[in-house]
Amino acid sequence: MNVIIDVGNTTVKIGLFQNNKLLKKINYDSKNKNQLTSIFSDFPNINYVFFCGFNTQLKLKIQNIINDSSVILVDWKNIKKDMINIEYDNLDSLGFDRLGLSVAALFLHPKFDNHLVIDMGSCITYDLILNKKYQGGQISPGINIRLKSLEKFTTTLPKLDFLKPNFLLGKSTFDSIQSGVFFGIHDEIKSRIDFYKKEITDLNIILTGGDTLHFKKTIKNVVFDDNLLMKGLNLLLKYNVEK
Fold it and tell me: Structural domains in the chain?
């Protein structure tokens, strides 16, 4: 059994895999002192922990828990990243999330050679694979970053939590911000999809990430997979273990 630790910008997610099947996904709660210990006690057949991210304190906690066991801790910084061909100027600057997503797209959707993966988290990332080679993409601000920036860089706009609008035309400042953020992102994604589809034939488009739930009814003809990153990181771990 493998444990995948995905340290994101806002949350830490833990995935437990058995034979490439995701058995359980957990949101890490730093206030729950027994959470990590209970995972290893509830699943005693864990072989590997794949730590992806830069939370030194969390990594140390895991090391202390598995110190006297046969569990092997694998660090993202030390793995081989040649599972797919990558045409990117600086491989060291490519985050584990973008590589993991691309690996998942390529190996879980083998009927396609071309993929566009859109990940909607703190940032929105667009990753393009052409002829089974990673090409690069784009990064833009996600929902919460846009909301926070409007409050931070203006003198009168309020700080808001996101609420999906049911309207295009805002009749108040609150409604106008919600509409502007939602439809701004919606139109950005649609524009990127339309652009790539005109340029590339047989393009497989996958949307993933926590904020995709707001767009599932309005973005059509794409694959939604909330666990794409976890699956890709597990494939990367398996590849490195076999190497």
Answer: 2-78 (3.30.420.40), 85-233 (3.30.420.40)
